[in-house]
Design brief:
Blueprint: E1 7-11, H1 18-29, E2 33-35, H2 36-45, H3 49-58, H4 66-78, E3 84-87, H5 93-105, E4 112-117, H6 120-128, E5 130-133, E6 139-141, H7 142-145, E7 160-161, H8 168-192, E8 197-201, H9 206-218
Parallel strand pairs: 1-3, 1-4, 2-3, 4-8
Antiparallel strand pairs: 5-6, 5-7
Helix pairs in contact: 1-9, 2-3, 4-5
Bound molecules: adenosine-5'-diphosphate.
Length: about 220
Amino acid sequence: MKASKQRILLLGPPASGKGTQADHLSRAFGIPHVSTGALLRSECARGTPLGLEADSWTSRGLLVPDELAVRVITAWMAGNGPRFLFDGFPRTTVQAEHLDKALDAANTPIELVIFLDLSESEIHRRILDRLTCAACGTTFGGSLHGMKIGDACPSCGGDLIRRNDDTEEALSERLRVYRESTLPVVTYYRKKNPSIFHRVDAGEGSDEIFQKLSALVSADKG
Ligand code: ADP
């Protein structure tokens, strides 16, 4: 498929399907998908100082400091072209201002902002049922797929685990942080770039959402 939009942000609460949709869009349109959460988890798995510092925040359901998030995304941008699908960045208005400044300086502005909106009850249901492959990062609804911790990932054979922040305690903290820090980012882009901002109901089926997002990525306008 041909993408009209080359620089895209996917915003939304935990379990809104940002990662899954970003993956599908990335494959369909050939735009690199970048998740700051995944970048931080990979640093942590390799035991780097940055990864270990990040883990001390993420395991408690807290955001890593802005400086750290900006550092990992800047490193990614330096090694890649001006095309991206960001999932999980920016997560605070400070990060959004950093990103806008860097993109303005390079004359490569954001072209599409998608807000995947989901109710808190559905967020709880999905997160506490979610299993993640420790090797490839693919996520599965445990009850939907009849899977449990320790099963083999159907995609790559890796171990299915419960992420250390997919617990009741960390989730209530993540939701508080989401309301306080990330919802303002949604308002920031809705006000700043209303013509490229789109809200999509993340409670619908994954295929329907993908059709909607694909139409937005291919559309010549907005
Ligand atoms: P989810 O969307 O399910 O919360 P992510 O993989 O996007 O999962 O993020 C996992 C964790 O990584 C977050 O809870 C947070 O601690 C950290 N993180 C990811 N992106 C950022 C960011 N842009 N700024 C600060 N912390 C981040």
